[in-house]
Structures are given as structure tokens and as C-alpha cells.
Automatic annotation (TrEMBL), chains A, B, C, D:
Pathway: Purine metabolism; IMP biosynthesis via de novo pathway; N(1)-(5-phospho-D-ribosyl)glycinamide from 5-phospho-alpha-D-ribose 1-diphosphate: step 1/2. The lineage of its organism: Bacteria, Pseudomonadati, Pseudomonadota, Alphaproteobacteria, Acetobacterales. This is Amidophosphoribosyltransferase. Mg(2+) binds at S325, D387, D388. It catalyses: 5-phospho-beta-D-ribosylamine + L-glutamate + diphosphate = 5-phospho-alpha-D-ribose 1-diphosphate + L-glutamine + H2O. The gene is purF. Its EC number is 2.4.2.14. The active site is at C37. Its cofactor is [4Fe-4S] cluster; Mg(2+). Keywords: 4Fe-4S, Glutamine amidotransferase, Glycosyltransferase, Iron, Iron-sulfur, Magnesium, Metal-binding, Purine biosynthesis, Transferase. Pfam families: GATase_6 (PF13522), Pribosyltran (PF00156).
């Protein structure tokens, strides 16, 4: 769908100085779903921008294509954005010196579509009548295009191609007079998944959508030198650890947390809402050392491995994780099954920003750039490969081939999530259903296509047992698992408008 | 005055990837007024972008800080912008390959305030309900801030800090349905000097403000290979010469020229208006080989030199121009006076983008980077220096010192414009009155400050005689000469609001 | 020691365009010894340069600061070098297109001293009377400075600051007429550790120093399309795997392998020599999936963990590796001790090229950039940390602090190498003895300095048992373990000259 | 001819990081001979590097492709080099801060062959047994290849492809013990044109070849703050003016000037020699404000115009210079002939580093990028174009076409040099004879090819009259005019070896 926007032109929007899609080259190659973003904000701390850069570094796994920070020094807002890793964008102390102030908000971006443009890098910033406002957003709106068209019709000019800019324009045209009322006015018009951090001259605001699909937590820096402890908002607890902040609580679904010099207060403009937290955060996205919604991610993953071993045990000689994300589940699987856990696949972490495109003689090398087999561990063995998900299946096939080429006698694959049968519209980059292997094939067919002797996924009940419930039913829709079930808890307005337009 | 804008923050608006103020370093050093922009557009030609790049190159003297081109290929708009000279921005054939199409509009920018941001580089582009629109603007609006504040209040979000973006928003919110009507709606709300070239999907539009302060001409490429000749719009005739186009006519003050596949038509939405063309274009800005408003710039400059010699002749041994702009007037002065014309000052054209900042022992070298004296021509001589204007007087002082150090016995300065006593608000970068030497001192004082034995400026009547009139009165306000007279023909809305705000 | 060299100046040798020491910023921060280089060569294959880039990518762990490839197309040599990871330097297909030919040699560089200059990046290339010659070198010469001084005295001009350039000059001034004889002439004059790959117009040559301190292996690509299988030389077997080559054999200590269109032949100019292979390759340097000298690196590391558990078992709740290098030993330790293996420390692999320097409030964050603790695994537990070595001890201290801050009740550290008491002069970047913790303190003191409840290193006999010998004595000096013992098998000529100069 | 060299490979010698031939793109387009280099050195001054950068800026006309400075601070040498204009390479104060010291030597490069490599940028520097040595060279050796081959045979490894590196190696292998003796030893082996500035730890040395083909002058900075005045060596007097130094004298042909803390001394190792100064310096290369060999360049050029008018006067309406170099001669021609001097051709000085390559419809635009016609001055007129030389004639043809297209009734061309019939081997970039128009055609044919109504060159006697002699004979071989006469005063060893090799 085309999106009208200021300064950019559909089809070839980038000027030379803005264009940098090298980063996108390897994006889909590892055939994983991708988190779209990480957010971090701090109110009233020395070195606010440095803390934010550290927080973004700890959240790097949530987005590696671009980073941005907006700081506020009591008089002015300061912005720096760039393409690349946090360390590349903010590693220069001269850059950090351009971001003074006691408050800051930052964003890591993983772009889902098109080239990565510097204009699209968040936080977005606009100067309003009432002063500046920076917005960092993790998630995806399901009625962004519909709203965008209406706003353009009204005379609004968009300058990015991101969903998130819709927030800015809705705030700009709101007739309410203060920032929080304008923000609520805007929130009431959008649908979708949004964890927001907003920085104005007078407050730092955290927002989670009514269903709390994407995470957002509140933390506090210990007081130093007699100063009051600063408040921190972040996507995950691992970002608190790196800056030495203490976890206070999760921001609640549908909650607006407003932090200012008077302290902290909370609004619930949507009333009491039902949590539908993204279950895939536990399976793959979140960092293993994070604690989400009260549960340790690492423990949960190991426990999924345990359940998987119970459900789909198999006689074998070694349990081998597909690194890095399959490691905890494989450890759980090994512990439960009593079969030794071995590093049969080695991951090369030194992949630069770009790499050689396969030519002539050299084919299908993509996967070899990241993984290599540890032959002595695999040769002549019955191998259980443990991975977290199968999306297109292309990488799984290559890894199985590598493992067989290294001499494995049997290859069994165990997946620590149910089959991925549906696309995500709430902030995760997944391909269309037509490209999802599990949407097109049953498990037997998938096993054949991937080339394994047996294939099993964790069951729904097994997954929810690992999360501490008796079974899925017992979890009472506490999570969004639409990518496995097609049970979408938020209306897909744009999708419906495009695929099932109403008759004229 | 602060200007609210999207994504930028007053005080430190630039991200690292956007910031490049190196180009600005030498900006004021030559102590000349500066033209703000050059514009060029072409409709229905092969290689439209290449022609536009050539046209911009010929107009390089009107702006050296940045360049941009938007092309249209019948389906999509394509944009490329960059900081630097036209050859630096468009010299790469791979860049040109990203600008396909038979129509294009281009812009050279000379920034008057703040850092040079890629966001500010024109043409500005926006995608509207009715399709894309690119706008290139030479001039300055006198009510831009007033309009901007009103637009921000209405919810419009600005993304550049240029006056020109006001046009875009006024067009965006207009209730008229077609591009031309929306454009006229916008024009009726702005005040100031504006030569515009606008490119939409269906037409190329040229506009001159009601008084025609800034130039805009119409040209036509000869037909080739049976194709119809393409139309060209440009700031000066020298841009026609480089692409081999023929001069058709000046766009008239207050005229809108609309070029589309049906041909060309003209609108006069402001009715018949009085021309007040900028007289400084003749004195300094325009390229000597351009013909403006029917008069050859080179001839006019020489004739000013003739008039100056008649008015302020002096016994001397050599007539020496301050290169490059003083050359034609000095030739006229020499011819009329019979005193030999000699190149006593040599200009070094190889000044890179940056240069050494004077330190310790090395002071006041700025002027030496650009000029050096040709000692044998000056030593022991009575020298008449001919220059086009005195703004702050700092460079004049340094040049006089250099000429004396080279042995000149006497130094007389003759200036081919009247004393610059007022700021320009119509698109020329001049300092505030407090910094204009002639606004603070009489001629005798100026002579002393600059260090010359005598100083004379062309008289008003002399200037207009050189332009073909009997005297200034006889020219009947045909020109804007506000920088010499303070007679501002267009209301200074923003300036008045800032300096003489109405009582609350 | 100062090294005379062409074009560079000691102290500030780099021109702006050559200087890039950003890469060096994090070099010592992880407080590990560093391998200096990886080498790869291929003779007679399609896409020789692409294969070499892949091989270098697989050898990236041996050097991350710079990479270079020289190819030969039958008529001309072609060179490309750059700073950064292999993927950064060779990821652009346009770059690869500049490296045509069926033969190529490549090099990964880890610089031990000074800034990383593009001039120092290998392979070094020189045009001789007899044609071009490219040399890639892994190792370090112990008489390089002595030879360099003599060569400079003779009139040779050095252009890099690398030891390796000595080879080039010795070959250049040799009076022998063919490449192999000149090479042998040069080899007879140098002392030290050198695995060389040399590419001339007529042959690809692999050389290992008489003691075979650094690794070099021979592999062969399977024949395709009726062509004969190409020969490959590489530092490790993992580089064969990525290109699909089969392992043939280790190049022997003191052997020269000459590959040309007639086939392969072997010379032993030093006669039969004693192998003293670097034992640290097993402990830390080599990739776990490589097989060195007939032994699988991964198995050896696990076995060291087993021996360590036997020697220095301790009551504890969890075995936690310091990732990534401590993982296999920790697995062995856990398996032998029966204590659960847990990922209590998470490594952040997304460290960009640079990062924020700690300021004010933010101190000692370096280690946190790379590692974070997985609190639920550590809290309230008795923890055994397994790491491969302690060099300065600074990182160990920080990690222990982190683990305690995460709630560990006891922290025991087990190290899979003996105490590092001596510097390496054979190609490994280690600090001077004065900075080696184990050279200055006994184990009790070290435990206190690092802050652990107990500290143990693998014993010499335990280490050699893991390698398959009864004890160290039984290994019969088969390895170089000078960094643990000070038993240097190759004379340290330069070091002696500098530290114990002969009386005049 | 192929030149063996270190690190570079014939055919594709440049690595990506070294390659930058964009600068070369416009090189031959203006169809002028090019000076190869400018040199500047200073001994014992504060801000020695800043003075050198200024001096190089004043000498920018002698080489625009690259610049370098080596400074010495009493302990160490410091180097910075870069491609581009002096202001681009040295305009950053942080760069200047890396070049401390009271002594410095600098070089502007105009490359004659191949790509411009940073390795080729001078000053060349080498660290010898006796310390560092920097060498800056203007000129060309006629036996460089012969010497180079002999040096390579001896084992010397070249790292640049410049002639100048031969000096370095000859100095390196000399058996003499001090710098000056080694330098003289080297000089006695080379043939050709060489103005050298050499900087060692103890002295700054200026050398002119025995015939003094290329210029070199000695100047002195006025004493400041009680310090002794610093010595300056430079290619032209205009470089003294910019730093405020006073002209002392020309370095004499065959003279070695040695400046150290004791003062200045002079050696004449070649005995008394005959001066053969390059006459083209007067005609075209030198800056008009320089004084060479006691004669003002500007005056000489004007006088050539006077002589030309006397010899080849023609009835015409305007005298039009081809800017910029033809201006003084045109002034002289106009003054003598009484025909008005007019700027009928305008030069665009804003040509960026690159520009659009002509495509399709757009042909032969090269010349239009730099020049445009001032139509009112030319239309209907009989025009005399005055230029300094005709090399290939391609540009002349285009300019004549432009002038005719602007309406000129007659076009007469007058050239202020004799016909260029031979190549220069002494440091000027001229094409081979086969491409020199005057080497292939008589004047009548040339006139036809260029498209003029008449064509005349200054006669030999006229040229020498302008230089103050009665005629050429009377000038007694005081100048090298080989490019006009083929009378080569220095043996062309390499050229002869290549074109007339001796029978085996």
C-alpha cells in the first residue's frame, strides 16, 4: 500500500545521503521473526543520554538497523540518530556531548519494510505550539493507513513512512490544550500494539496499549549524592541491569504512567483491560536474562525444553541446539531426556554488515556464514536439533543438510514453539501466510521438506504448562498467540480494508 | 525568531548525518551580499535531470551550499539532494541514473541562517491527495513566520526551517481541488519575493511574485529528432545557454505560467502589477553573460563604471578591479578615464571547502587566501580600486592594506553601487543595519575606516543612467533599490511583528 | 623499540586517510591473549577470491582488525585490503570483481602494537625482477628488529611496521635466481614462529617454521565439472569446511609445500625437526569446531574441564561458563562433577565498533557492555565460574563482582589453563610480565584480588592428560607452553638485544 | 612502461581505500599542459606547518590533485597527506594539530599518469640509519626507469610509482655517512629536471638541477618577537607573499642550499652550470603575480601580447581573452592594437570535483561547463581570441564554435606561445607528439581544423623580445624551449631506451 509522505517519493524515496540499505541485506536470511523495536527513557538523571545509550545497547536484540536519542536539557531538545548498532551511532564521545540534559528517550529500530531511511529512525520529534515532543514507539498500528489517509486528506504532510508518525499528527491536530490530554485523544483513535515513551518539556510518559501486547517496564536508579532516584522506562529488565536501576513494576496494559518533577502518577483512560501479552517474547524475542511479566525468560525457555522432551522424546545420542536462541530449550530437553547436550553447531558472531553474495560455484553459503558444524560431535550420531521456531523453513533445511553432511546418522528436530501459521500484525516482522511453512504444510510434509527423520513442535498445552498454567484453556487468553492460532485480539482495520474492501 | 518544525530542535537541530556546516565557514568572509537561490525546471525533454543539473551548474553563482533535483517519469517522482556544488552532488552518473523522466525541477541553495541541513535543501516535495508536488523557490517571504505560527496552531508539522515550506502547507490545506487553484490560494496568502518553479504530475508551473523582485525566464529547447521542443524555466539566461535553449521571454511580475502536454498558458491572478525588479541583480548577483529584463548585465556594469568615472574621476596611474565582480565596472572606468586597466589583484580560485583558521603568528589571512597583490603593477603607483559594494567594510580594509603593502602611493576606491544602508528582506543575505558600514558612517568616515585616500559611490542618478534612464526619478520605481534607499515595496510583516509588536 | 620505515614516522606515522584506530579501542578490554593472524590460500579454483574471503571469514576469530586478499589471474596480481571484519572489507560484489583469477592468498590481521595502518595489512606484495610475490604471515619473528636494522643499514627501505616485511626484503636481496631458493635463503635467516602462504606467478607455497608453532593445514576442493580439485592452505580446518574442501593433512613443522600446475611437492630445508605446537591454540585460540594436529579442539576443551573437575572439584549449585570461550570446559566440568551447567552470564554480541567511554556516574561499564548476569540462575547459589585463562585479571574481577551483585552466595573460579606467567614472543599478543597477574602473585593472592572464594588452575599434568598424554613429561616437549613455563624453544634475539645488550 | 613497485600491482594497483581517481576526471579536459608540482619548505618558524599549508595554497595552480606536509618537531617527524585541494586536505585545525614543529616541507601534486594513489603523494618520507628524511620534488627524471630497474635488481623495493622515489633509494644505498654527501651521491646519478626540498633532523635543503629547469626560490620571514627570521624555500614568489616572507634570491641552477641552526650555506657540486629555465613558466604555468628569474610574469605576458599584436595584427572589433590564462596577453594585444578588450568568454569557477558525463542528447558539453559566451560582446563582431597555447586543439575548436554560435562575424586566434610541437620530459604533462596539433599540421591546416578565419602564434624572436632579448639567438640558450623546438638540453635516457633500444 502506498503511503503519502513529505519529502519522500514512493518507489525511490531516498536521497543519496539518506539511503543505506546495506543493513537490510542479511535481514531475512536467518529466517526468524524479528522484533521491531526497543525503547528506553530516563527522567532526571545525570548523563541521561549516556544511560539511554547503554539501555539501548542492552536492548540491541530488539532492533539492529538504527538508533536514536532525543535529550532535553531544560531549555532545548537535542537529537541524534543514525543507522547501525548503538555502539556505532553513539560510540563517539563528541556525539554524546551534543545530547546534554537530565531527560532522554531512545529507540532501537528494526525496519519491517523498504529501505532504512534516517527520516524513519525514531524517536520522532515535532515542535508544537506547546513545545517539543519526542515519541518512541514499539509495536504496530492496525489502522495506521486508514488514519494516515484521513490525515493527508485534512492537509497533514507526512515526512516518514512509519506508522508511528500517525501519533504525532493526531497530537498536533488535537484540540485539547495539554500534552497528556492530546496524547489520550490520539490514543483513542489508534488501534494496535503500542508501547510508547514520550518526552515533553514537563514530563516523561510511558504508555502500553489496552492489551499490553508489547512489554514496557518501570525502574528506578538508586539515589546518588543526595539526588532523588531517577525514573527509567524500558522494554525489558535487562536494560535496567546495565544502568544499575532497580525493577519497580511492569507498566500495566492500558496504563499511562506520567513522570514529572512532582513524582509519578498513573492514568487508565481505557478503564480496566484484559492483558494479551505476546507469548513469542518468551519463546524468542526477549533476552534470556530478562524477567517479563514476573517470569524469568531463561527459566521459561528451559522449561519449554523439558515439556518438549516429555511430549516428543526420541532415542538419540546428542541434543544439539541451533545457536543462539535454541540453547536454553535444548538444555531443558537434554536434562529431561538424559541425553548429552553438545555444541554441535558453532555460530560465527563476526558477520560484518555485508557479505559476499553467492556466485557460480558457491551456492547456499548464507547459512554457512553464520553457522558451522562441529563434526566430531555429530559424526555417526543420532542428533536431536532444538530450535525455537520454523518460519519459512529455508534455514532449517540448510542446517539439517549441514548436520547430515557432518555425518549425523539420524536428525530429529524439536521446536520450542507451536507451528507458526499466521502473520503478526502487532509489531513482529513475519512473512505473509503464503510463505509460512506451517501455514502450507502439515507436520509430516514439513519434516520431509526440511529433511529430518522426525519433527515435533511443542503443543499448546505444553507451552502454557511451561508458563505455569495447567493448559492453554487455563491460561484464559492471558497471552496473544495469534501467530500460532490466528486468534487476533485487535481488529485488523488496514488489512481488512485492503483485502476485503467494502462494496462502493 | 524560533521556528517550530518537525524533527528539528532549535539550537541543535541537526543529527550527525544531517549536519554539515563546513560549507558555511567561508560564507561571510568575502563580505558580499549573497543571492539565496537559483531555480531551473524543464518539461518534456530527454535527459531532463541532466539538463537540470547543467542549468543549476550555470546558476551556481546564485547558491553554492546545496543542490537538489526532483524528476518525474510519468509514474513516479525521484529526488536527490546534497550539500556542496552541483558537480559534487550530481557529478556521479549513478546518481543521475536514479533521476529518470522527461520532467525535472532543480534548486541551488545559499542558506541565510543556521546550519545547512539536508532537510532544508530544495526542491521541497510532498505527496498530497492529488499526487506529488515539488517546489523550488528563490526569494524570501515577509510574512512566513506569521503564517507558520498560524499553521502550527492548526496542527501542521514543519520539517524544514525554510520559508518555502509555508507554500507546501498552504497548498496541503487548501480546499480547492486542483493544483493550480490550490497554488493560487496559497500565493494569495503569502507576501514577499518569490520566483517559484512547481512540478506536479500534470504540469510545470512558473510563478513570479506580483512585483517580480526576483528573476524568472522562459526558454525553449530546439526540437530534435522530430520531438517538440521542451520548455525551460530558469533564474537567468545563462542557464539557457548551457543547455542550448533559446530565450523566449521573462515571466512577468505576478504571472503564473503553466506548461503541460497541451502547451503553455498564462494566468495573472493578481491582475496587472508594477514591476520592482531587484537592481542589485545588475550590480552584483547575476552572471555577467546573462540578459535580465532586456538588458545585458555585462554592458550595464561597464556603463556604471563609465558613469562612475564621470562622476568621481581622480588622477591616478592604474585602475585595478577587485576581482572578479569589480572587473567590468573597472573596465568601464578605465575606458572613460583613459587610465590603464591592470590586474593588480590576483584571485586564487582554488579555495577548498575549508581552510586553516588563523592562529598565533598568522592573522588576518582570510583575505589572502582569496586575493594576492601583483606587486609590479602597484608599486609606486596611484591606484584606483573599483569594487561593486561595501557591506561591512572588513574585506575592503584588508584589500586596501594589501595594496598599500605592495607599494601603492595612493589608493582611491570607487564603488559601482550606492551606499548599502538597509537590509534586504526579499531574498538577499545582508547583515543587519547595525553591521552595514554605510548605515553607521558617512562617506568621509568610511574612507578613513577603510584607509583610502578617497572614496566614492555611484550616485542614484548615475546608476539609473547606466540602466538607460535619465535619472532615478525617470525610472519611475521600475526597480527595488531598498538596500540603498529603505524604500521597501512589500510589507515587512514578520519584521514589524518582531520589532514593533502590537500592544496586547 | 623504534622501527625505521618508509613513509611512516614513529610516533605519529599515520596520515588521516590511513589512520583508523577505532577498531583498537576495545582490543584489550576483554583481557584475553589474542591470536595475531589467520591465513588462507587457494590454487587453481574458480572464484578463488570468493573462496578466500569465505575462508578468512571462518578464520575471523584469529584477527578482526583488518583483512586483505591478493589474487592472480595468470597475467596480473590484484590487491584489496581494508580495516574491519572480512564481511565489511569484502562484502561488496564490486570489490570482489576487482579480484579476478584462479589463485589467491588472504590474511586476517590482529595488530599487536600501534595504530592499525592500511600499509600494515597483509598480504604484503612486492614486484621483483622475477615477478610479483604476495606473502601472508601468521606468527612473530624473534630476530626481526635485528634483521631490519641490518637491512636498513644496507639501504633497504621499509614501508610497513610489520615483522613480516623482513621476509620480503630478504627475498628481494637474495642472490638465488628462483622464488623457492630465494624463499629458503630468507627462511634460513629468520628466527621465530611463521606459518606463511606465498603466492607467485607460478606457485602457491605453504611454509611452517621448523618447530611448527603456529598451525597450517592442507586441504583439497572436490573436483567439479571435470576440473582437477583445487588445493587449499589454511590456518585451521574450519576454513576448509566453509568452502567445502576436504582436509588432507597438516603441513609439517619445517616443511615447505609447493603447489603448482604440475601438482604438489614438499621440501624440508631444515631437515627433520621437533614439533613444538602452541598449546594455547587448544585452550583458547582455535575455533572449537577445528581439528588441530589430529585432535578435536572442542573435545580437548571439554576434557580439560573434566580434568579440572577431578583436580579441583568444589561443592556448588551451578557451573557457569564465562562466555563464549569458557563454555566447553564448563560443560566438561559440569558433566564430571554432576553439578548443573547453567548460562548464568549472557554475552551481548552486538558490540559495535566503538562505544561510550565511561563518564562521571558511569564507571566500569566496559565489561557490562559485553556481559550481563542472568540473575535467577545466580541468586542465592554457590557458583563455579569456568574461564579459559587469567591475563591481567581486570575482567575476571569485574565478572566476579557482577556475579556477586546478582546474589551469588559463593563464587569459585576454575581456569582451564595453567597460570599465565610469561609473555609470548611467537605471535600471540600478551602483555609484559609486569602486567600478568600470575607473574606477580601466587594463587592465594590472585583469589583475593579477583574476589573469589576459591581459585584453581588446571595443572600441567592435567592439561597434558586432556591432550592424551600420561603427564607433561610424557608429552616430550611436543608443545610450546612457554607462556605458562617460560621454556622458550626459539631464541629471543631481539628481546635479548634490547634487555641485555652486549657491552660495547 | 611497467614499473615494479612494492604493494601495488600493475594494472590494478589500488586498493579501494587508496583509490581515488575522481580528481583525474577533468584533468585533460581543458587541453592545457600541466605543471606537475609545487614545493614549499620552512626552517625554524612557529606554526611551520600552517605556513607550509598557506604556501601550498598559493602554489595550488601547480598541482591540484593531492597535497602533503611533513613536519619535524625536534624529536619526531609527522606526516599528513591527502587527495584534493590544500584547503580540503589541511583545512581542519585538528589535522594541523597533528603536524607540530618548527620545520616543515610540503608538496602539491599534479599526477601525470595512472590513478592518484595516496602512496604517490609527496613529500616522500623514509627512516634511514641516520634518521628520517622527507623529500619533495618538482620535475621529472629522464633516467628514472633505468635507475629503478637497476635498483630493483639490487633488491630495492619500491612502494610508489613516482620518479621521485628513486632519490630515496639512491640516498638509502649510498655509502657516504652524512645526509648531504648521500644526497650529492644520489644527485650525480640522476638526470632530469628536479627542484627538491629535503628535510632532515638537522637541516632543510634546497636543490635545483644543473640547468635549473624548474624554479626554486629562497625567502625569509621577518623576525618577530626577537626570534631570528625563518628561512623559506618555495617554487614561486607568490608563496612568499602569502606568508609575509621577503624574497631573498633564486636558488641557482646546480646549487644546493643547506639551511640549519648555524645559518645558510651553498654547495655547487656540479660546478658552474648553464641555466636553461623553462620558458613555459612565463607563458602559462607561473602565477601572474610571481616574479621568476627577476622578471614579473604578468608584465612578460602582457608584453608577449604586445609583440603578438605587432607581428600578427588584424582588423577586428574586439580582443577577447580565453580566460583565465589568456587575459594578460589579450590586454597587451588590445593596448598595442587599439582594439577594445572585452570579456567575451566567461569562466565558471564553480566546477566541482566531478561532473556529468555527456549522454545522448547532451554532447560536447565539457567546455561549456567551464566557459560560456557573453553574447552581446560577440554578436556581429570581428573577434580576436587570445590564448596562451594550442595543445591538442580540441578545446580551441569548441571555444571557436561557441564564439561563432554567439554571433561573431569573424574569429581570429592569436597564441602567445610558438606552436607546441614536442613533448616535455622535464616535469610538464604534455601528450605525445602524435596528439600535438602543431606536430601534425601546419598553421594553415590548424586554422582550418580549429575553424578560425586566421591563426597566428608568437614568433620565437617575438617571444624572446618580450623577455628582454633582441631575439632568440641573443638569448643564448638561457631557456629551455624544447616543447617548441625539440632542442632537449638533458639526455632522454629512458625514452631512448624504450624507443631505440640497443641491439642485443
Amino acid at each position: 500500500m502506498s503511503r503519502p509522505c513529505f519529502h519522500a517519493v514512493s518507489g525511490n524515496p531516498a536521497t543519496q545521503h539518506e539511503r543505506d540499505d546495506i543493513a537490510a541485506q542479511w535481514r531475512h536470511d536467518d529466517d526468524k521473526p524479528h522484533e521491531e523495536c526497543g525503547v528506553f527513557g530516563v527522567w532526571n538523571a545525570n548523563d541521561a543520554s549516556a544511560l539511554t545509550a547503554l539501555g539501548l545497547h542492552a536492548l540491541q536484540h530488539r532492533g539492529q538497523e538504527a538508533s536514536g536519542i532525543v535529550s532535553y536539557d531544560g531549555a532545548r531538545f537535542h537529537t541524534h540518530k543514525g543507522l547501525g548498532l548503538v555502539g556505532d551511532v553513539f560510540g563517539d564521545s563528541r556525539v554524546m556531548a551534543t545530547l546534554p540534559g537530565h531527560c532522554a528517550v531512545g529507540h532501537n529500530r528494526y525496519a519491517t519494510t523498504g529501505a532504512t531511511l534516517i527520516r524513519n529512525v525514531q524517536p520522532l520529534f515535532a515542535d508544537f505550539e506547546f513545545g517539543g515532543l519526542a515519541v518512541a514507539h514499539n509495536g504496530n498500528l492496525t489502522n495506521a493507513d486508514t488514519l494516515r489517509k484521513a490525515l493527508v486528506r485534512r492537509g497533514c504532510i507526512f515526512q516518514s513512512t512509519t506508522d508511528s508518525e500517525v501519533f504525532i499528527h493526531l497530537i498536533a491536530i488535537s484540540l485539547y490544550s495539554n500534552v497528556v490530554d492530546r496524547l489520550i485523544d490520539a490514543l483513542k483513535q489508534v488501534l494496535g500494539a503500542y508501547s510508547l515513551i514520550v518526552l515533553s518539556r514537563n514530563e516523561l510518559i510511558g504508555v502500553r496499549d489496552p492489551l499490553g501486547v508489547r512489554p514496557l517496564i518501570l525502574g528506578r536508579l538508586r539515589e546518588e549524592d543526595g539526588t532523588e532516584g531517577a525514573w527509567v522506562l524500558a522494554s525489558e529488565t535487562c536494560a535496567l541491569d546495565i544502568v544499575g536501576a532497580e525493577f519497580v513494576r511492569d507498566v500495566e496494559p492500558g496504563e499511562i504512567v506520567i513522570i514529572n518533577d512532582e513524582g509519578i502518577r498513573s492514568l487508565k483512560p481505557f478503564g480496566s483491560t484484559q492483558s494479551r501479552f505476546c507469548v513469542f517474547e518468551y519463546i524468542y524475542f526477549a533476552r534470556p536474562d530478562s524477567i517479563m511479566d514476573g517470569k524469568a525468560v531463561y527459566d521459561t525457555r528451559k522449561q519449554i525444553g523439558v515439556e518438549l522432551a516429555r511430549e516428543s522424546g526420541v532415542e538419540a545420542d546428542v541434543i544439539v541446539p541451533v545457536p543462539d536462541s535454541g540453547v536454553p530449550s535444548a538444555m531443558g530437553f537434554a536434562a529431561e531426556s538424559g541425553i548429552p547436550f553438545e555444541l554441535g553447531i558453532i555460530r560465527n558472531h563476526y558477520v560484518g554488515r555485508t557479505f559476499i553474495e553467492p556466485t557460480d560455484q558457491i551456492r547456499n553459503l548464507g547459512v554457512k556464514m553464520k553457522h558451522s558444524t562441529n563434526r566430531p560431535v555429530l559424526d555417526g550420531k543420532r542428533v536431536v536439533l532444538v530450535d525455537d521456531s520454523i518460519v519459512r523453513g529455508t534455514t532449517s533445511r540448510k542446517i539439517v543438510d549441514m548436520v547430515r553432511a557432518a555425518g549425523a546418522k539420524e536428525v530429529h528436530m524439536r521446536i520450542s514453539s507451536p507451528p507458526t501459521t499466521h502473520s503478526c500484525f502487532y509489531g513482529i516482522d513475519t512473512p505473509e501466510r503464503s510463505q509460512l511453512l506451517a501455514a502450507q504444510h502439515n507436520i509430516e510434509e514439513m519434516a520431509k521438506l526440511i529433511g529430518v527423520d522426525s519433527l515435533a513442535f511443542i503443543s499448546f498445552d505444553g507451552l502454557y504448562r511451561a508458563l505455569g498454567y495447567k493448559d492453554r484453556k487455563n491460561a484464559c487468553n492471558r497471552y496473544c498467540d495469534a501467530c500460532f492460532t490466528g486468534d487476533y485480539p485487535i481488529e485488523l482495520v488496514d488489512y481488512e480494508a485492503e483485502h476485503h474492501p467494502e462494496p462502493a
